What we know:
There is one protein chain. The protein has helices spanning 6-14, 22-36, 43-51, 56-78, 85-88. With 90 residues, the chain is an all-alpha fold. It starts with 5 loop residues before the first helix and ends with a helix.
Amino acid sequence: MLGVDEGDLAKLASNVEGLDPPKTREIIKFGVKCARDPQSLTAADFASLRSLGLTEGEIVELISMSALAVYANIVADATAVENDAMFSQL
């Protein structure tokens, strides 16, 4: 629907380290860490994003989008929404 390449979607699900460009990969890794274990974020994690050119506002937006994804997953789980077929195959 959003026009994301199917190969990139597969990498998101199974091989984040294979994503290019590196800036995108690091943003996604930060977002996943933020969603799964936000207490484990370190000053180095934030410094890494800044070194890639992200502003403070963009970092806050990334944190907010991670939180929204967690919320959406909770709602989907609680309402028994079925997984998309492509993710069931992985």
